[in-house]
Design goal:
single chain; 260 residues; alpha+beta; five-stranded mixed β-barrel; 8 helices; 8 strands; 34% helix
């Protein structure tokens, strides 16, 4: 059986028998995949640099034919590392949450190539500490939009039209509401907030990470996205509690009134 070439980011490594590791990656070709890497714990291993967490590498693997079997590494070549992410506490948490999502991504999406390209771009910016939170936030948001259960932001969830001005994101319906369909007691939300969410549907992730934002809009969006992963999709987000407990990701009572 010939070896299969893949391009992948290393998400997790686990020690195994006889100097081996089990390597979990997200690849351009197959999405999430794991393989045994024999001998990589030896100091003389030529593959050891390619299998470190936050590495972007080219691998040749003997791909298992059955899902209950592990593939096996033949060779690995390190192409780029994103090790600086681990040197910044917040950035490391962002990367860890992204990997937790990718570890469960096959439950909701098989768009491996598109997600892989977004991942590389986001890791590059987070590694360089270039708008790290924004890159993390838009990555986890866009992954939802590539799933079988995206946020309902193409038009009004009630009248199913996009001809009337959108004035609200309704949390219980995870979608937009237009001015015509606003129910008694429901309030319009900040225009800047509506624009942020609208652009997720209208613009690319590369466009959105370069824009200027009201920070509160981003925090509220983050809360929506995290709730969606946990409540609707049933994902385990690992260290998300570390972000929830930070002052920087909490909205004051006065500010939160604008988004209710």
């Amino acid at each position: 059986m010939g070896a299969t070439k893949i391009n992948a980011v290393v998400m997790e490594t686990t020690d195994f028998d006889d100097y081996a590791k089990i390597i979990k990656v997200f690849s351009k070709q197959f999405g999430r995949i794991s393989f045994i890497a024999p001998g990589v714990n030896k100091s003389t291993s030529k593959n050891k640099y390619s299998v470190q967490t936050f590495s972007l590498s080219d691998f040749e693997i003997f791909k298992a034919r059955r899902e209950d079997k592990l593939s096996k590494l033949k060779t690995g070549v390190l192409k780029k590392d994103y090790f600086k992410i681990a040197q910044n506490y917040n950035n490391y948490v962002y990367g860890s949450i992204m990997f937790k999502i990718l570890d469960q991504i096959d439950q909701i999406s098989n768009k491996n190539y598109k997600i892989y390209k977004m991942l590389i771009s986001s890791l590059e910016n987070i590694n360089n500490n270039n708008n790290a939170f924004i890159n993390y936030l838009f990555f986890i948001t866009y992954v939802i939009q590539e799933s079988i259960q995206p946020l309902r932001i193409k038009g009004c969830v009630r009248c199913k039209k996009s001809t009337f001005p959108i004035v609200r994101f309704e949390y219980t319906e995870y979608g937009f509401v237009c001015a015509r369909c606003l129910w008694p007691g429901e309030k319009t939300q900040p225009e800047s907030f509506i624009k942020v969410i609208s652009n997720i549907h209208r613009k690319t992730i590369h466009f959105n990470v370069e824009q200027k934002y009201h920070y509160t809009d981003l925090i509220v969006l983050h809360n929506i996205v995290v709730d969606y992963y946990e409540t609707v999709l049933g994902f385990y987000l690992g260290p998300i509690k570390l972000l929830k407990d930070t002052v920087a990701l909490n909205v004051s009572e006065k500010e939160s009134e604008l988004y209710k």
